[in-house]
Each structure stands twice: as structure tokens, then as C-alpha cells.
Amino acid sequence: MATEQTLDTSGTDSLLPTSDPFADWYGDTGWRRETGDSVAHGVAVRSEIAANDCDSLWRVLVEHRLLTRLAGPLAGECFADVLAQWEEHLSALVPRSDWEQAAVVPRPSRDPAGSAELLRHGFAPVRVLAVRPADRLAAPGPATQPGVRIRPAEPADLDTAVALSLRLQRYDAQFGLATPRPNAEGLLREALSEELRRGEPTAWLAELYGRPLGLLRIQFPPGTAWISPFVAVDRMGYVASLHVDEAARSSGVGSALAAHAHQLFDEAGMEAALLHHALPNPTSTPFWYAQGYRPLWTYWYRRPAVR
């Protein structure tokens, strides 16, 4: 199916890419509805990961995505028709009430078109790709906190890093994306063991008066190539995760880790920092926006995909 390969970002967000970040996803199943000078264009794609993949800890195994292009004053009305056709397509394809399959609609966060229609069809804004431009100021406060020491995580810290990551995964599972799995500890141990053996530190521990209570994991180019199509900058850092143990909440450990990540990104010449977070999370959402982030892409989810 032919599709537009550019995005009209005027009036929405200057950090959205001008080329289509989903171009490589497009398949043959799609729908288009036009009313006057308004249009809704949607393409259905499917992605799947194995249960023994570490990414399975943070998402469902099967995602059915509707990739959309909406334009014009009646775009919402056009989108309602496209959405209905996609749902009919899903109903014939996806088992009902399968918790491991989700319907997903990614949308530019500053473009509200289609939001009302998604809500009517049982979708919720659950996941956000947030961005922090390098010249954006965070909330005032010291980059370091009394009693907090940040150091690179080493192979000897593997057990600590696994324990902190496992707590993060279990906490995030409350918000509908991360999924509790019996092999979670093994998957995290394997991934972190490989990461801690690398020469360049990308995992950092925060100690509060000598006790390790926070973990930060970050990525630099070329490791951020997978996320680069979604933002209009050439060099970006990615915050893969940041977790602070409950015993250290509101102690400044999280802010110190975030400031450390931004300092590393600045020193490496990054133009922006990116991260994903669960929008319903009552701690991470206000925390990250206080650090200077804002929503760039919002992912609307319905899980199970067909009810």
C-alpha cells in the first residue's frame, strides 16, 4: 500500500522527524478515509518477540500497531472510520482476551487529533517517549546530594544491579506494559552481566552513605540508532532505566542519577536525551518532567488487543 513518507510537523512539534519513523514497518494492510480537506490514513503492522527475550519484561509478546497520519479539521471523524476498519481486521485475526497481545496506536504527543476516538474504543495513553533537549533547564537544585556517591557499576555489582532492576520491573508491571515473568531474574542477570563487562560504563550505581540504592542505565551512539528515527536531532543519548530503592525515595538519589546522566550526555555532545516511561506511573511521570523532559510520542494501548 502506498503511503506518505513525510510528516507535517508544523504547529505540532519541532522535534518530530520530517521523515517517517515508521516507514520500515509498513505492510500491505491499510485504510484511508478523506472528507473534504481532511484525511486519516492507517496501516496495520504486527511485531512479536520471544518469551526468552529480555525485552519481553517491558512489553507484551505481540503488538498490533495502527500507524496513522491524520490531517485537517475533520481528521478525527475520518480516523473513527479507519479505527473501526482496523478493529474489524483485528477481531478476525486475534484471539479474544489474550493478555499477551495488545493493540497499539502511536501518536505525536502534541497532536490531539484522534484522542477522543481512541478513548471511545477503550484505548488509554500508557507509554510515552519523552525528550529533553540539551539546552533545556531542569528544576533548580544541586547535581549532587549530601551522602550520595555515584560510581560505575562493575561485574562485582551484578547481584545488586539485578536486584534493583527486578524491583523496577515488578513495580512497572502495575501499569499495564511490563509483564511479570518467571524467567525475569535470569533474563536480567544475563543482560546486565554482558553490560557490566563492557569497557565503557553505561550502568551506574548510586550509593547513599555507602549503601547502593539506585541504578542508572544509559546508551550512547551508535547504541541509540534504534531510537534515532523518532526525533529530529543527529546525536541523542537514551536513558534505558533509572530506579531508586523505596528506602531512598525523596532523598535526592534519583535527581543525582538523572543529573549525572545529563552531564555525561552533555560531555559527549548529545543534542537531546530520550527515555520511555509509563504515563500512569505516579512517581516517574512527575519526576522526569521536573528534570526537563516532555512528551514527544504517546503510545495508546488496549490490552488485550480484542476483548
From TrEMBL:
Keywords: Acyltransferase, Transferase. InterPro entries: Acyl_CoA_acyltransferase (IPR016181), Bact_Acetyltransf (IPR050832), GNAT_dom (IPR000182). SUPFAM superfamilies: Acyl-CoA N-acyltransferases (Nat). Residues 148-307 form the N-acetyltransferase domain. PROSITE patterns: GNAT. Coiled coil: none annotated. The keyword Zinc does not apply. GO terms for molecular function: acyltransferase activity, transferring groups other than amino-acyl groups. It comes from the Bacteria. This is GNAT family N-acetyltransferase. It comes from Amycolatopsis rhizosphaerae.
